[in-house]
Design goal:
Number of helices: 0
Distance between the termini: 23 Å
Order of helices and strands: EEEEEEE
Mean pLDDT: 93
Radius of gyration: 11 Å
Structural class: mainly beta
Largest sheet: 4 strands, parallel
Number of strands: 7
Shape: globular
Strand order of the largest sheet: 1-3-5-7
Protein backbone atom coordinates (compact mmCIF):
# COMPACT_ATOMS: atom_id res chain seq x y z
CA UNK A 1 0.00 0.00 0.00
CA UNK A 2 1.12 3.51 -0.77
CA UNK A 3 0.60 6.60 1.36
CA UNK A 4 0.07 10.23 0.40
CA UNK A 5 1.32 13.08 2.59
CA UNK A 6 0.43 16.71 1.78
CA UNK A 7 3.02 19.23 3.02
CA UNK A 8 3.56 22.95 2.33
CA UNK A 9 1.45 26.03 1.78
CA UNK A 10 -0.78 26.68 -1.17
CA UNK A 11 -3.56 24.68 -2.81
CA UNK A 12 -3.41 21.08 -4.00
CA UNK A 13 -6.26 19.63 -6.08
CA UNK A 14 -7.16 15.94 -6.13
CA UNK A 15 -9.29 15.62 -9.25
CA UNK A 16 -8.61 12.06 -10.39
CA UNK A 17 -9.83 8.69 -9.12
CA UNK A 18 -7.19 7.22 -6.79
CA UNK A 19 -7.24 3.53 -5.87
CA UNK A 20 -4.39 3.30 -3.34
CA UNK A 21 -5.38 1.96 0.07
CA UNK A 22 -2.76 3.65 2.26
CA UNK A 23 -3.26 6.62 4.56
CA UNK A 24 -3.79 10.10 3.13
CA UNK A 25 -2.32 12.65 5.57
CA UNK A 26 -3.01 16.34 5.00
CA UNK A 27 -0.50 18.17 7.22
CA UNK A 28 -0.37 21.70 5.77
CA UNK A 29 -2.03 23.90 3.19
CA UNK A 30 -5.35 23.47 1.45
CA UNK A 31 -6.41 20.33 -0.40
CA UNK A 32 -9.41 20.60 -2.73
CA UNK A 33 -11.20 17.35 -3.50
CA UNK A 34 -13.13 17.41 -6.78
CA UNK A 35 -13.48 13.62 -7.24
CA UNK A 36 -15.33 11.47 -4.67
CA UNK A 37 -12.58 8.83 -4.99
CA UNK A 38 -9.68 11.29 -4.87
CA UNK A 39 -8.64 10.35 -1.31
CA UNK A 40 -8.06 6.67 -2.15
CA UNK A 41 -9.93 3.45 -2.66
CA UNK A 42 -12.88 2.18 -0.66
CA UNK A 43 -11.81 0.24 2.42
CA UNK A 44 -8.42 1.95 2.62
CA UNK A 45 -6.60 3.29 5.68
CA UNK A 46 -8.47 6.62 5.65
CA UNK A 47 -7.59 10.30 5.62
CA UNK A 48 -6.18 12.45 8.44
CA UNK A 49 -6.55 16.25 8.30
CA UNK A 50 -4.12 17.96 10.71
CA UNK A 51 -4.77 21.27 12.49
CA UNK A 52 -2.61 23.23 10.00
CA UNK A 53 -4.42 21.82 6.96
CA UNK A 54 -7.82 22.22 5.39
CA UNK A 55 -9.88 19.95 3.16
CA UNK A 56 -12.32 21.64 0.78
CA UNK A 57 -15.23 19.61 -0.59
CA UNK A 58 -17.10 21.53 -3.32
CA UNK A 59 -20.87 21.23 -3.24
CA UNK A 60 -22.24 18.78 -4.31
CA UNK A 61 -19.66 16.05 -3.64
CA UNK A 62 -20.62 12.79 -1.97
CA UNK A 63 -17.58 10.94 -0.55
CA UNK A 64 -18.31 7.45 0.81
CA UNK A 65 -16.16 4.57 2.02
CA UNK A 66 -13.41 6.85 3.40
CA UNK A 67 -12.68 7.23 7.11
CA UNK A 68 -11.95 10.90 7.89
CA UNK A 69 -10.08 11.99 11.02
CA UNK A 70 -9.80 15.69 11.96
CA UNK A 71 -6.92 16.34 14.36
Amino acid sequence: NSNLARLGAGAFVLEANNTYLGTTTLREGTTVLTNPRGLGGTGGAGTVVAADASLVLPNPLNVTGEQLTLS
